[in-house]
């Protein structure tokens, strides 16, 4: 989904929000990106991708939060603080990470739909607030149904070979852009990693649209 907004400039203000459904920190980011971007007059493109191939290229066969227990313990406590700050429910999933492939395919298939961001947020809540298995078609279908969408039609679109290929290509694009984690924000090819970098990314989007030169080039 892309909402292009103008701010007295010939250029569009736009930010790419790259997210992975298995990513804990993408949950609070998904809940606040739309509001923060709208307040800044910046459009958002919601870009699902898969971290598995990116982690595999680094020699990891699991989430780094599982590979490094101290890092994982910190992350879960940090998530408690972040979600409390944003007023979001949090329940540590009984299985982590969960496979978000099907949900990512649906999100990509629905990229042009106005309800795509609502679907993304619903998947995150199902995973990280309700401890539901988002890899199950029945769970994903129920989220679509709650949004007033026909589950079978969208699951079929998500499973079409063309859409599967498109998700692989989008993940390849994420790798070419240098993404190594989620959430990530990209503006004019510049990467901002982590939910706490959202405001920097939005400032970069506004500066780019107004023709501002990046710092250090003056």
Q: Give the mean pLDDT.
A: 90
Nearest-angstrom radius of gyration? Answer: 17 Å
* Uncertain spans: 1-10, 214-218
Report the CATH C-level class. Alpha Beta
Largest sheet: 4 strands, mixed
The sequence of SSEs as H and E is EHEHHHHHHHHEEH
Report how far apart the termini are. Answer: 34 Å
Structural category: alpha+beta
Q: What spatial order of strands do you see in the largest sheet?
A: 2-1-3-4
Write down the domain tally.
1
Number of strands: 4
What do these coordinates show?
This protein has 218 residues and is an alpha+beta fold. The chain has one domain (14-209): Glutaredoxin. The chain is built from 10 helices and 4 strands, in the order E-H-E-H-H-H-H-H-H-H-H-E-E-H. It has helices at residues 26-40, 52-57, 64-67, 69-86, 101-109, 116-128, 137-146, 151-159, 161-176, 198-209, and strands spanning 14-19, 43-48, 184-187, 190-193. A 4-stranded mixed β-sheet has the order 2-1-3-4, sandwiched between helices. The longest helix is centred in the middle third of the chain and has 18 residues, at 69-86. The radius of gyration is 17 Å and the shape is globular. Residues 1-10 and 214-218 have low confidence and may be disordered.
Describe the secondary structure blueprint for this structure:
Elements: E1 14-19, H1 26-40, E2 43-48, H2 52-57, H3 64-67, H4 69-86, H5 101-109, H6 116-128, H7 137-146, H8 151-159, H9 161-176, E3 184-187, E4 190-193, H10 198-209
Parallel strand pairs: 1-2
Antiparallel strand pairs: 1-3, 3-4
Helix pairs in contact: 1-6, 1-10, 5-8, 5-9, 6-7, 7-8
